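Complex record, two chains
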Amino acid sequence: MKDFMFVFRNDPAVMAGMSPDTLQTSMQKWMDWIGGIAAQGKLVDRGSRLANEGNVVRPAKIVTDGPYIETKESIGGFIMVRTESLDEATEIAKGCPILSAGGNVEVRPIIRM
Amino acid sequence: MENQELIPHLFRTEYRKITAVLGKTFGLEHIEIAQDIASDTFLLASEMWAMKGAPDNPVAWLYTVARNKTLDYLRRDKLFKEKISGQMVRNSEMDDEITIDLSTQNITDSQLQMMFAICHPSLPVESQIGLALNVLCGFGINEIAGAFLTNKETINKRLYRAREKLRTEKVKMEFPAETEIESRLDAVLKTLYLLFNEGFYSAGKDVTLRKDVCIEAMWLTKMLTENPGTNRPPANALLALMCFHASRFEARTNPQGETVLYQDQDDTLWDSALISRGEYYLNRASCGRELSRYHLEAAIGYWHTIKADTAEKWEHILQYYNQLLVLEYSPIAALNRTYALAKARSKPEAIREAEKLNLADNHLYHSLLGELYLGIDDGKALNYFKSALSLARSRADRQLLTEKIQRIGDHNG
C-alpha cells in the first residue's frame, strides 16, 4: 500500500460566490465523497482546509500577501489516502466534487523520509 | 423485596463497592483476597437471611460483615498483614488495627480508581473487559464465558494473566495525574463501550445475561459522569449512546428469543424513559469543542429513536457515519453508512459504494448487498443472502437470513 496526498485547487471566487444553500450541498457532497473513501478504510488523514488569505515569504525575506485572490488555482486543502497504486488513487480522485465546481485534484505519492 | 430478589440486587450494587474498598486497602496485587471476602460476605448473607430474614439495613449489615471478615482474615494471616501494612502507612501509624473505610466518599473513589486500574493500558483490551466483568460487576467465570461465547478455561487463564500483569506492572489504585487523565479516561471509556457492545451485540442466546452486561456498563459509565474529575463530554456522550441503544432492548427480541430487526420493531416497546435519559446526557455532552466518536454514535443513536422513516432522518445518520468513519474506520460503520446512503439517496448509489468496500468475508456485507438488491434484482439479492447464510455463525443471524431467503422464494415462486 502507498500513501498519496490529494491537493485540492480551485478558484477562491467560486466558493465566495456560493449561496448558503449551495454551500451546504457542496459540503454534503464533500462529506459523502470523503466518507466513501473512509468507508473503504483508505483515508489516512482527513487533512485540513486552508484559508484563502496568507503570506508568501520570498528570497531576501520579502513578504507578500497571498496572491491567491487573483489566481484561479489556489490550494484550498488536502487529504491523504492509502491505496495499492497511483492508478487506484487517481480513480478515487475522479469522484471529488471539486471537479464539477471548476477545480482540480493533484494526486501525489508521498515519499517517507 | 424478598430475599431471592434482594440478594442478587445488592450483589450487583454492593459487591463492587466492597471489592473496590478492600482492593484499595490491601493493594491491587491482593485483589483476589478482596473478591473472596466480598463473595463470602454474600454467601453468609444468603444463609443467614434465609433463616432469620433480612436485617433492617441490609447494606450496613453487609459492610459490617465484610469489615469483620477482613479483620479476621488479617488476624489469622499475620504474614499477610505485615506485607500489606507497609502500604497502609497512613492508617497503621495511627492505629494498630487496620481501618476499613466504608464511607461513601471512599467507596466512590475506590470504585473509580479500580476502573482506572483495570483499564490500565498495559492490559490487552479483552483482559480489561474480563476483569471489569469479574471485579467490577461481580460476574462469575461461567457468566463471563457465556458473555464471551467461550469456555471457562479460557476465561480463567485470561483473568489469571491479567492479574499477574497488574502485579508485574505494579499498577496502583489511584487517580491518574491531571496530565494523563484524558488518555486514561479514553481507555476506560473504550472498555466500557466494548463491554456494552459485548452485551448488546453478542451472539449469546442468554438474553437476561446480555442485558445485565449492558446495565452494568451503563452503571459504570454513569459513575464516571457523577464524578467531577471524570465527568467529561465523551463520558456523557457514551452514556447517551448506551441509553439510546438500550431503549430498544425489549423490542429487538421477540417472545421466542429471535432477533427483530430495527425496521420491523414495534416502537411502542421502545423505552421512552431511557430515550429521555439519552437526550439528557447528549445535551450534557454537547459542551466544549470536543467531538468524540461517542458523540457521533450517540447522535446516530438519537436519530434511530425517531421511528418516522424520513429522508431527513437518514441524511443526518449518513452524515454522522461519514464523520465517524473519517474519525475512525470500522467495518460495521462502513456497512451502516452504506445502508444509510441507500435510505437517504438511492439503492443504486449505495450498491456502487457497497461494491467498493472489500468486506467479502463478512456476512453482514452480503446481507447488506442482498438488502440493497431487493426490488432491483431479486435474483442477485437471493444469491447475496445465500452467501451471507454460508458465512453467518450465530443462530439468530442464520435464522433471519433463512427467513429472508424463504420470503424471496415465496414472492417470486
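Note: The mean pLDDT of chain A is 90.
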